[in-house]
Amino acid sequence: MSQKAHLLIVDDEANTLASLSRAFRLAGHEATVCDNAAKALELARSQSFDLIISDVVMPGKDGLSLLEDLKAQGVSTPVVMMSGQAHIDMAVRATRLGALDFLEKPISTEKLLLTVENALKLQRLESENRQLRQRLGKHEIVWTGETMKKLMAQIERVAASETRVCILGETGTGKELVARTLHERSPRASGPFVTLNCAAVPAELIESELFGHEKGSFTGAAGRHVGKFEQAERGTQHFAEQVCAQNNWKPLPFTPEAIEELKGNSWPGNVRELRNVVERLILLATGPEVTEDTVDQALPHTLTTAPSLAGSGTLAERAQAFEREVILAELKRHQFHVTNAAKALGLERSHLYKKAEQLGIDLRSLRHESSDGGGTT
User: Is residue 140 part of a domain?
Assistant: First the structure.
């Protein structure tokens, strides 16, 4: 055996103790023997064992009672039970009490050693799993403030559903942390959380990465590959698509103002976009009905008045004037909050500063003029 183990053998028959301990020692293990349950419990509490192997039928306290006592005393050492009078009920009870395995006497040396090997492998895997969890730490959002309070409230509402979720934000703002929090607070928390960096996957491989493939399905497919969607079965993905009807939501009425706000949208995504927005509105609504404010929060914002391309000058001059109008309109819509305006325009904050300078937009003066409105950078 590649791994040496310290074993505790419990049996009231001296011959069994002698034969088992000899077999284990020949295989390179260390064996401690004990002929009763009370002494075994004392040894298990005072010494460190990799595995306990105990007979079931013994005078006084039997092996199943020992198993109960070990569990009650907080002894986490795995236990394998054995008996020459084994029956189904006994095996079932032992398993329910936490026994790792149940062996029927007489036990061959080969089977005995294999059982020990499997138990040690399982113990090693559990230990590695605990170390990995400690290394990764707990994915927990630490927060204060009203903005984060609203975000966490949204997470709580959405986590209980089976809806699709799109998380937007600049690099480093914690999008994956929000996704993990959604997963951990959802009914799928016991399932896997699967992440995929789509930007890192070549376009010709994305289909295989998402949906998987079978051996020989294309050149180079040497084996079966399980896709991300199958890996996340009963778990969570950033882009998991579920049917809204699965949520069994109670429909909320829309105020007339909310309906008018929806009518004013161009709906470039057609019916699919409308369905997604309605789903989002029901999730975001905090009251008994969907209001205009809720619709305004859910709809993608566009400029209320399109900048004019009319005027005179060269094409470059007209394009520059158009850019200037667009940026000024977006800054005004965001109360001259540069970060939010840059995000709406799809620009980096530093890029917007540079563009404003090129176009002669004095951001400092604009912010000063709107200081009563609370504009910030």
Answer: no
Residue 206 is assigned to a structural domain of this protein: yes
One domain, residues 105 and 153:
no
- Candidates 350, 325, 341; CA nearest to 375 is 341
* Tens-place pLDDT, residues 19-48: 998 999 998 899 999 999 999 999 998 888
Helix ranges restricted to H, the chain: 14-26, 37-46, 63-72, 88-96, 109-136, 146-159, 175-184, 206-211, 228-231, 256-263, 270-284, 292-298, 315-333, 338-345, 349-358, 363-369
For 217-267, how does the pLDDT look when each residue is reduced to its tens digit (9 = 90+)? 767 666 777 776 666 665 544 332 462 344 566 667 778 888 888 777 777
Domain of 321 in residue numbering reads as: 315-373
23 and 77 within one domain: yes
**Per-residue tokens: 362:** 């004095």
Domain identity same for 192 and 334 = no
Report pTM.
Answer: 0.39
User: At 355, which CATH number?
Assistant: 1.10.10
Helix (H, G, I), strand (E, B) or coil at 33: strand
Q: What band does 205 get if pLDDT is binned at 50, 70 and 90?
A: confident
